[in-house]
Write a structure and sequence with these properties.
Layout lengths: L3 H14 L18 H21 L6 H6 L21 H20 L8 H24 L25 E4 L2 E5 L17 E5 L2 E4 L5 H9 L11 H10 L7 E4 L2 E5 L4 E3 H4 L8 H10 L7 H9 L53 E7 L14 H4 L7 E4 L16 E3 L8 E2 L3 E3 L1
Parallel strand pairs: 8-11
Antiparallel strand pairs: 1-4, 2-3, 4-12, 5-6, 6-7, 8-9, 9-10
Helix pairs in contact: 1-5, 2-4, 2-5
Length: about 425
């Protein structure tokens, strides 16, 4: 790995933080996350802690900030988190960030990182890229008046009718989950080792559920019917008094849909994939007398073929390109479902990669033979608790580096902020 990808990730971080007004740094638009100022310090602190003292044995210059910004949070069993009362000033955090970058750039640049450093550099890079999406979740939730709209931001996609929804039958077969050790230049610990799983035949929707489709569930009283929800999901729905998806904004009997800089008319977003929590997706699936796909079923639908071979990506072996889907921040919102037929799988299942992480019914858990990362042992293991679920495929805000087949995302079932989508499956 050269240093340029990390430098480019730093530049993108700066562009994202530049979307905040001066009044927004202490805002906490997602109650389960820290204020923005924490993330301003967290990204350089993570890089410094793993590369500075961790890899090169460099002496800390702000040990207090190294500890303060060391790790984020993911509280379980609550709907909000109360952060610390005081934070360092933004100017102080920016000075810390800039000094971290200067030192790391110097020690890594000449004569260039030796091979032993590359996995740690890759870890730092991917951590930065993943947090870009976290920042965008938070930015979307932030009051629009506290954002600085960029002059060159991507426009909203035009409304377009998706192709007719259809179910695709996928015959029984085997699928590969994970990756073999040594097969990737870098991977997180939960991606290893490789395992083979037998998958019975099933039918899966060729397109994700859209806002228009989810509106039928809302109008049919889906949020008022306890039998459609599991017990924790129903308790959460009642506690939060939910009547519709979090990103839908009710106005005068009509809905608008939240996007990064606008609450757009429902008809503009009607054919975008429905962005909901796993609890809501599961309730919708029960309403349809169906369920969410398992992790193995999703991979079989996305990467399997009638011949029994598996593709690297749904469309084949070619690296992800613009024609294959919406990812890499080319759009500032979802696009209408079915916009990228060139990204279809061998079975005709569309946009499994991009336009929204796909909820599965599989709890986040280790593959047999799992070993934690030596430099970050809690990265995955802290969340093997049965209360987080696997999402796959990537969203419009996911960097292309993270689209590899073995990459797994995970969230709590009542977390409505992730750029998600879902589809239904039935046994056959």
């Amino acid at each position: 790995m050269t240093l340029e990808p990390l430098r480019e990730a730093w530049r993108r971080s700066d562009r994202l933080f530049a979307l905040l007004s001066d009044e927004a740094w202490l805002e906490q638009p997602i109650p389960l996350r820290q204020p923005f100022v924490f993330y301003l310090g967290h990204l350089p602190a993570f890089a410094w802690n793993h590369l500075g003292p961790g890899l090169f044995g460099l002496r800390a210059f702000r040990a207090d900030l190294d500890r303060l910004f060391e790790r984020g949070i993911d509280p379980v069993g609550v709907d909000a988190y109360v952060p610390r009362a005081t934070w360092p000033g933004v100017a102080e955090v920016l000075e810390y960030r800039d000094r971290v970058r200067r030192i790391l750039d110097d020690v890594l640049s000449d004569p260039g990182p030796p091979p032993a450093q590359v996995p740690v550099l890759d870890m730092v890079l991917e951590h930065e890229l993943m947090h870009h999406e976290t920042l965008l979740y938070m930015l979307q939730e932030l009051d629009h008046r506290l954002k600085v709209r960029p002059g060159d931001g991507p426009p909203l996609p035009p409304a377009a009718a998706p192709p007719p929804a259809a179910a695709v039958e996928v015959p029984a077969g085997e699928v590969t989950l994970g990756a073999a050790p040594g097969s990737l230049a870098f991977g997180w610990d939960n991606e290893f080792p490789e395992c083979r799983v037998a998958v019975p035949a099933f039918a899966i929707e060729a397109l994700p559920v859209t806002n228009a489709g989810f509106l039928d569930f809302v109008r049919d009283g889906g949020y008022a019917e306890p039998r459609l929800w599991d017990e924790p999901g129903w308790a959460w729905r009642e506690r939060r008094c939910l009547q519709h998806p979090h990103v839908w904004v009710a106005e005068g009997g009509e809905f608008r849909v939240r996007s990064l800089f606008d609450d757009v008319p429902f008809d503009v977003a009607a054919d975008w994939p429905a962005t909901v929590s796993r609890a809501e997706a599961s309730a919708y699936a029960r309403w349809r007398q169906a369920r969410l796909p398992s992790e193995a079923e999703w991979h079989r639908a996305a990467r399997g073929t009638p011949s029994g071979e598996e593709r690297r990506f749904p469309w084949g072996e070619d690296s992800p390109a613009e024609r294959h889907g919406s990812f890499g921040l080319r759009h500032g919102s979802p696009v209408p479902a079915g916009s990228f037929p060139d990204g279809a799988s061998a079975w005709g299942v569309q946009e499994t990669v991009g336009n929204g992480w796909e909820w599965t019914g599989t709890p986040f858990a280790p593959f047999p033979g799992f070993e934690p990362m030596p430099r970050y042992p809690g990265y995955s293991a802290d969340f093997f608790d049965g209360r987080h679920f696997v999402l796959l495929g990537g969203s419009w805000a996911t960097d292309g580096v993270l689209l590899r087949p073995s990459f797994r995302n995970w969230f709590q079932p009542h977390y409505p902020y992730v750029f998600s989508k879902f589809r239904c499956v039935r046994p056959i």
